[in-house]
C-alpha cells in the first residue's frame, strides 16, 4: 500500500513517514500544498494524509481538486483545528476521516488501516474466533468453550470490533467512533464501562483472558502465552 503525507511541519512529517514506513507502507512526503496537490492528482496512492493548514494550497483545496478530478482516494485529515464546523467542512468535501492534533501514532495507524480495509472487497465472514471464543455473525451468537454467552447489542458490536482487529491496540476514541458513532470525550467512561462488562462475560470465568489493557494506548484482544 502506498501513502501520501502532506505535512509542512518537518519534524511531524518525518516522524509519520518513518513510523508508517516501519509499519510496512510505502510513503511519499510533501512539505507544501502545491507539491502535495500535484502528487495527489497523479492517482498513484492508496490513501492521502493531509494537514489542513499548508503553504500554497490548504488541505481543503487539495481534497477539492482530488474529488473534482474524479479520484476516490481515501483522505484522512490531520489538523489542530478542532471546531465542529471545520470537521464538517472537510467531511462535506469528501474526506473519509478527521484526526485532531496532537494524536497518538497508534490511533493514526489504526485509522489508516481501517480506511485501507474499506476499499478491499472480500467474501463476507460469518464467524470470528480467538482461542475458544466464537462469534457467529449471522445468528448474532457468542460462545466460549461451547458455553452460550448473552451480550447486549453494543457489547456484541464491541466484541466484533475487537475480534476483527485482533492483535491491534485500539484507542478509546476509535472504539467510541466505531461502536457508538460518537466523537470521544475524555471525560466520559463509556468505553471503560463497556470493556469491563464485556470482560466479565467472556473472560472472568475462562482461561486465558483475551481482552487486555495497554496502558495509555487502549485495548487489544489477543491470545497471549502464559508467562
Mean pLDDT: 88
**Unreliable parts:** none
Q: What strand order characterises the main sheet?
A: 2-1-3-4-5
The separation of the N and C termini measures 36 Å
- Helix count? 8
Can you write the helix and strand succession as a string?
EHEHEHEHEHEEEEHHHEE
How many strand elements? 11
The portion of residues assigned to helices is 25-40%
**Major sheet: size, sense and barrel closure?**
5 strands, parallel
Strand content range: 15-25%
The structural class is: alpha/beta
How many whole angstroms does the radius of gyration measure? 19 Å
Summarize the structure.
The protein is of the alpha/beta class and 227 residues long. The chain is built from eight helices and eleven strands.
Q: What this model shows, in words?
A:
The protein has 227 residues and is an alpha/beta fold. Helix content is 40%, strand content 21%. The chain has a five-stranded parallel sheet, with helices on both faces. It has a four-stranded antiparallel sheet with strand order 6-7-8-9, with helices on one face. A two-stranded antiparallel ribbon has the order 10-11. Strand 1, helix 1 and strand 2 form a beta-alpha-beta unit. The longest helix is centred in the middle third of the chain and has 14 residues, at 105-118. The two termini are 36 Å apart. The mean pLDDT is 88.
Break the fold down into its secondary structure elements and pairings.
Elements: E1 2-6, H1 10-22, E2 26-30, H2 33-41, E3 47-51, H3 59-68, E4 75-79, H4 84-93, E5 97-100, H5 105-118, E6 127-130, E7 133-136, E8 141-144, E9 147-149, H6 153-164, H7 172-180, H8 190-202, E10 211-214, E11 218-221
Parallel strand pairs: 1-2, 1-3, 3-4, 4-5
Antiparallel strand pairs: 6-7, 7-8, 8-9, 10-11
Helix pairs in contact: 2-3, 6-7, 6-8
Amino acid at each position: 500500500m502506498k501513502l501520501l503525507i502532506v505535512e509542512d511541519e518537518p519534524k511531524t512529517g518525518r516522524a509519520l513517514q518513518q513510523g508508517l514506513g516501519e509499519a510496512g507502507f510505502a510513503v511519499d512526503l510533501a512539505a507544501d500544498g502545491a507539491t502535495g496537490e500535484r502528487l495527489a492528482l497523479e492517482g498513484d496512492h492508496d490513501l492521502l494524509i493531509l494537514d489542513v493548514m499548508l503553504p500554497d494550497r490548504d488541505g481543503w483545496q487539495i481534497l477539492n481538486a482530488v474529488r473534482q478530478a474524479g479520484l476516490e482516494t481515501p483522505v484522512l485529515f490531520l489538523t489542530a483545528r478542532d471546531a465542529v464546523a471545520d470537521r464538517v467542512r472537510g467531511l462535506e468535501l469528501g474526506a473519509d476521516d478527521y484526526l485532531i492534533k496532537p494524536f497518538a501514532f497508534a490511533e493514526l495507524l489504526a485509522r489508516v488501516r481501517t480506511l485501507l480495509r474499506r476499499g478491499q472487497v472480500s467474501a463476507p465472514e460469518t464467524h470470528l474466533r480467538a482461542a475458544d471464543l466464537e462469534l457467529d455473525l449471522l445468528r448474532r451468537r457468542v460462545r466460549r468453550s461451547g458455553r452460550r454467552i448473552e451480550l447486549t447489542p453494543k457489547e456484541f458490536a464491541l466484541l466484533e470490533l475487537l475480534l476483527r482487529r485482533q492483535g491491534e491496540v485500539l484507542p478509546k476514541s476509535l472504539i467510541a467512533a466505531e461502536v457508538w458513532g460518537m466523537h470521544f470525550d475524555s471525560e466520559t467512561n463509556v468505553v471503560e464501562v463497556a470493556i469491563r462488562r464485556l470482560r466479565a462475560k467472556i473472560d472472568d470465568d475462562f482461561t486465558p483472558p483475551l481482552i487486555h489493557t495497554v496502558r495509555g494506548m487502549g485495548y487489544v484482544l489477543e491470545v497471549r502465552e502464559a508467562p
